[in-house]
């Protein structure tokens, strides 16, 4: 419920961006600056999220952030200018980041209690929530429901849903706990795990944004797709991404996080190759669908690895991965845009083939944070058992 609520916020307001741009009579630059307040707020929120989780616990941070996001969405519905809306978007970005870290911290704690992977399915719920929010936004536009009704109504739904989730998450609370620092001679290894986890989170975000931002532009420019056909690659990417997250937990439970990351990296690489070489829109859609399946477990498993990296205060590794992930989202439009301006969009996307290749190399570095390996170690060290 909390993952879905988190996804609904931005998915709801994004559908009204074109209308807001026209309502406030904004230039492209002013509109871009207003919208950028959200990502800036999320980066700032990620920096503080780890400290909040360590001090207050994951459940209070997750639920409080979700309720505040719902209230902010109500406020956004009555914004009377770009300055006010930009401030609200900054606050939404901040709350989105703290809620994201709180949700993941609590979800990973429940995963450890259950002894099997569930984090990919939780991120699948987030993806499903984003799709649902976009569809509800499209319906609101279709029926000409005013922003002043649409956004506050969704805000009320998010607040009520978050409060309904509170007694459920309290069944297994994750209170603030002091971090256990690494022994000096082992800090290098732990740093490698954290760095690899953060890099994988950024790669997953980079590739997701690559497909969603540039997929439609690519088919329009390279295959002659119409405006309606240009939406097909995005639908294929998001559909496959959501499906892949719901399927990835079973794969993790079978072959481990490292094996799943390697399979996903290869699938993402092949998907990009198909998309780059494709002469037709539908083939590009197949390639981006394969890309979506490949990157589906990257961000969830990267956050899991970062959270498990020893030697850090509770929530610190998770917050670090969330911060770097958001930097990956910001990097994709800039890097691809610069290369495309110089050599063309097809070449720019082809250059990005190096990204899943790097993920394949990095996957092995998070072995020490593999949930199956950790579970096996815990099983082997229980009282009455002997290590072998």
Report the sheet with the most strands, covering strand number, pairing sense and barrel closure.
none
Give the radius of gyration: 21 Å
Q: If helices are DSSP runs of H or I spanning 4 or more residues, what is the number of helices? A: 15
CATH superfamily label of the largest domain: MFS general substrate transporter like domains
Q: What would the CATH topology of the largest domain be?
A: Growth Hormone, Chain: A
Q: What is the total tally of β strands?
A: 0
Number of domains: 2
Quickly give the structural class: mainly alpha
Q: Per DSSP, what share of the residues sits in E-state strands of 2 or more residues?
A: under 5%
**N/C terminus separation:** 42 Å
The CATH architecture of the largest domain would be Up-down Bundle
Mean pLDDT: 86
Low-confidence stretches: 177-189, 374-388
In sequence order, what are the helices and strands, one letter per element? HHHHHHHHHHHHHHH
Helical coverage, percent range: over 70%
The CATH class label of the largest domain is: Mainly Alpha
Shape: globular
Q: Could you list some keywords that capture this structure?
A:
mainly alpha, single chain, Growth Hormone, Chain: A, disordered C terminus, 388 residues, 15 helices, 2 domains, 0% strand
Condensed summary:
The chain is mostly helical. The protein has 2 domains: 177 residues, Growth Hormone, Chain: A (Up-down Bundle), CATH 1.20.1250; 203 residues, MFS general substrate transporter like domains (Growth Hormone, Chain: A).
């Amino acid at each position: 419920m909390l993952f879905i609520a988190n996804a609904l916020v931005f998915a709801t307001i994004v559908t009204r961006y074109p209308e807001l741009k026209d309502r406030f009579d904004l230039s492209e630059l002013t509109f871009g600056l207003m919208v950028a307040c959200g990502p800036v707020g999320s980066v700032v929120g990620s920096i503080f999220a780890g400290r909040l989780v360590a001090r207050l616990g994951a459940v209070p941070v997750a639920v409080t952030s979700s309720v505040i996001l719902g209230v902010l969405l109500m406020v956004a519905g009555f914004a009377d200018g770009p300055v006010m809306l930009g401030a609200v978007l900054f606050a939404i970005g901040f709350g989105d980041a703290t809620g994201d870290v709180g949700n993941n911290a609590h979800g990973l704690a429940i995963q450890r209690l259950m002894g099997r992977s569930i984090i990919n399915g939780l991120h699948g719920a987030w993806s499903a929530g984003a799709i649902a929010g976009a569809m509800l936004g499209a319906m609101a536009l279709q029926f000409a429901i005013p922003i002043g009704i649409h956004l506050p109504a969704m805000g009320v739904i998010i607040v009520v849903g978050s409060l309904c989730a509170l007694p459920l998450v309290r069944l297994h609370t994750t209170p603030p706990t002091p971090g256990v620092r690494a022994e000096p001679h082992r800090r290098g290894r732990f740093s490698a795990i954290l760095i690899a986890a953060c890099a994988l989170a950024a790669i997953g975000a980079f590739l997701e944004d690559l497909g969603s931002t540039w997929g439609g532009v690519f088919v329009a420019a390279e295959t002659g797709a119409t405006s309606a056909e240009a939406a097909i690659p995005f639908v294929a990417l998001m559909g496959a991404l959501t499906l892949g997250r719901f399927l990835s937990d079973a794969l993790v439970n079978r072959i481990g996080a490292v094996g799943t990351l390697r399979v996903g990296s290869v699938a993402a690489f092949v998907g990009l190759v198909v998309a780059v070489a494709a002469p037709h829109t539908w083939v590009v859609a197949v390639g981006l669908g394969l890309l979506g399946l490949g990157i589906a477990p990257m961000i969830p498993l990267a956050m899991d690895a970062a959270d498990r990296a020893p030697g850090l205060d509770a929530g610190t590794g998770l917050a670090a991965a969330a911060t770097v992930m958001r930097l990956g989202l910001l990097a994709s439009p800039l890097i691809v845009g610069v290369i495309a301006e110089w050599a063309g969009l097809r070449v720019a996307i082809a250059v990005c083939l190096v990204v899943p290749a790097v993920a394949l190399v990095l996957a092995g570095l998070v072995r020490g944070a593999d949930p199956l390996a950790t579970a096996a170690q815990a099983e082997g060290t229980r009282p009455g058992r002997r290590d072998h």
